[in-house]
Amino acid sequence: MSGESRNLSANAPDMSILMYFTREGSNTQGIILPSREESGVFHSEYVSIVTEVQSMPQVKRKRKTYREGEKIKIAKYADSHGTVNAIKHFRQDFPNLTESTLRPWVAKYRLEARKTSSSDCSQISEKRGRPLLLPDELDRKLRVFIVSTRTAGGTINKHVIYGILMGLIKSDLGGYGQYLNFVITNVEGEIPDELILNVDQTPSRFVPTDNVTIAEKSSKHVSRKGSSDKRGITVTLAETLSGQILPFQLIYTGKTSRSLPHVEFPAGFCLSYNEKHWSNEAETMALVNKIIYPYVAKVKEELGLPETQKALLVWDAFKAQSTEKVSSELERLNINVVALPKNMTHLLQPLDLTTNASVKKMEKRGFSDYFTSTKYR
Description:
Blueprint: H1 3-11, E1 22-24, E2 27-32, H2 36-39, H3 43-54, H4 68-81, H5 83-89, H6 99-116, H7 136-151, H8 158-171, H9 173-176, E3 196-205, E4 232-240, E5 249-253, E6 270-274, H10 281-303, E7 311-316, H11 324-332, E8 335-340, H12 345-348, H13 350-353, H14 355-371
């Protein structure tokens, strides 16, 4: 390299020459470069830069997104004048519109027009995503309030959204109360508190550690023994309205009975195993026949109630507890069921709101005592 060239390199600013490259709007065919004199580079360098820049891949054109109103407007015109004429008519506003894009709109527009017997359609696009968990009116109010809150400069997060939703629901319990609470209607006569049962499953880890510990100030890395141990079981709890706690159902991970612990459990506990320690239909049937019904039969005998006396079971509405086999068995045993609304168990499930937390605390205390005991060490 010549001395002049070395001097230029030494004094050149520490920045990329690409900062001077600009594209002409959205037109990727033309690339504007400074003149060689403005660029401050040698002729050979300038030629090399121009060659490389011109060979760069073109920026992919951003896909046009059409609003629902625009689609309806274009489809309505195309229905009357044809797709080719519609494309010509709207070319200035929508230069990238093609027949392949327009034809499905027209077909959907005609279908909706026949359904409503009117040329005024409000929706021709397919709704995407999962169905709403809330009624349309409540969802609309929620969305409007969220948008207006953000427009006013407010913060939007899950806690704010939850607060807005609960406020809307509680303001009209008559209309939206089903999403906050439910009423148990007993058409068969009074059911004793001892025969109203609540059941819920909760995970239980073998090493129930907390997410906090103690460490030196300004420590960059704090390790916690057992924090990576995700092994656990599923515990099914059952409690009555009178406060009676039934024996637990414990579901372990495994394929054979060797997966079960070789310790003595309290009387009535039901132990089982499957590959994922999940509660499935088989585990639910075992829960009903080995824990729930024996308790119900015992209470009926103690209270002098007939075999036809109804019991009431409140639990979550998930697949394993809603099968035809489970429902038929509960009906045969004269046990009525109230299934809690989906996605509302954190508000309505009594065990979630009370006993589950106490059981978790008991587990942690028991593990801590065992972990620090002389026998363990």
